[in-house]
Amino acid sequence: MVYRNHSIAIIGTGYVGLTTGACLSKLGHQVTCVDSDIKKIADIKAGVMPIHEEGLADIVMEGQLNGKLQFTSALLSAVADAEFVFLCLPTPPDESGFADLSAIRNVANEFRGRLNPGTIIINKSTVPVNSARMVEDLIDNRDVRVVSNPEFLREGSAVHDFFNPDRIVIGSDNLLAGEKVASLYLGTHCPIFITDPVSAESIKYMANAFLALKLSFVNQAADFCDAVGADITEVMRGLSFDPRIGSTFLNPGPGWGGSCFPKDTKALAAYAVHIGRPMTLIEEAIRSNEFHILRIAKLVDECAMNAIGVLSRIAILGLSFKANTDDVRESPALKILQILQDKFHNIVSYDPHAKGIDDTKYNRVGSLKLAVTDADLVVILTEWSEFADFEAAEYSDLMAGKTIVDARYVLDIDRFAKEGITIRSLGR
């Protein structure tokens, strides 16, 4: 069964919505992206992207030029003739850690009585189990199907991930509706797994929780290796040959953050407690991550005090939660910087793309060279290639001190040692 060139409405133009909408238009569908932020819509139309994603701006421009991609703030007109409506809305944690579904509820209430028979609503937002059923109840239309289709796009490589997915998960109680949603992705080549909505919703949470758990394990292992004198990079390399463990998500770092892992682990842990099935491993992963951020801040503190003490000029390299994205939400780099600012008052920071922060508050400068010049201590907290590509000799020439805390393990210790620079990382 083949379905092509369908009319699609995308509700929300964040990381997921804008990428999904643009890439679906690239596959040949007629797509209208909707956002209540009028200025944001105007900026996108003008080619100003609200997010940093490689290749996205070109696809958005191409889609607008060929008429396949439109942007509007008029919700109801956008969905009036849509065969498929994607919900790509924020679900931030509330005070108890539960996912706040108010944005989804509000949109679903707007849809009541306004959707054409046969419309399929596709929930791409990360939501607790039974959310598809909740949307169905709010819309109250037996001729409208609600399908779960969780996203697995990594910030910084979202366009690549859309066209080269590991799998596509679809949750539907109606097989035909599930197959129609699957057909939207013709042109991508991967396993398509159709299951029930509750299982699909659970898959998304479990995937993120498992990855966060894996990262927490690696970071704890780094601390262990630091205590016993082992090399964490060698230990993880040795583990990676075991196919039961795999080679991904074995890189230690300053902690995990971003828009997904912190929010989703807290939401899953809160919901598990709510149903009387607490997931203590996930709870511990959250606590472990919080402790690890403090541990990295302590390491930087120790290195700074060994330099010239509280008067040390510290250069923080990286503010986004990981490389190739401008997202600073729950960024461990920012958290570590904030901890250090309580003690050290001569800190500068640099990030090539980070958005949404007060540059003055973090004494942000405009280039890597400006940041490291006269620094008594350099701290790498985000793995931007720019930091690794900068020559060891250049660091040595510009810095006042001779120590770099590499919390991302991107620098070659031996190469820097030849320039008289000591690289300090946990477990290496």
UniProtKB/TrEMBL annotation:
| Coiled coil spans | none
Q: Name one GO molecular function term.
A: NAD binding
The family database entries (SUPFAM superfamilies) matched by this protein are listed as: 6-phosphogluconate dehydrogenase C-terminal domain-like, NAD(P)-binding Rossmann-fold domains, UDP-glucose/GDP-mannose dehydrogenase C-terminal domain
Iron-sulfur in keyword set: no
UDP-glucose/GDP-mannose dehydrogenase C-terminal domain location, by residue? Answer: 315-413
- Keyword list, A-Z: NAD, Oxidoreductase
Which reactions is this enzyme annotated as catalysing? UDP-alpha-D-glucose + 2 NAD(+) + H2O = UDP-alpha-D-glucuronate + 2 NADH + 3 H(+)
**Keyword field contains NAD:** yes
Enzymatic class = oxidoreductase
Do you know which Pfam families this protein is assigned to?
UDPG_MGDP_dh, UDPG_MGDP_dh_C, UDPG_MGDP_dh_N
Q: In which pathway does it act?
A: Nucleotide-sugar biosynthesis; UDP-alpha-D-glucuronate biosynthesis; UDP-alpha-D-glucuronate from UDP-alpha-D-glucose: step 1/1
Q: State the NCBIfam families in the record.
A: NDP-sugDHase (TIGR03026)
Looking up PANTHER family in the UniProt record yields:
UDP-GLUCOSE 6-DEHYDROGENASE TUAD
Tell me the protein's name. Answer: UDP-glucose 6-dehydrogenase
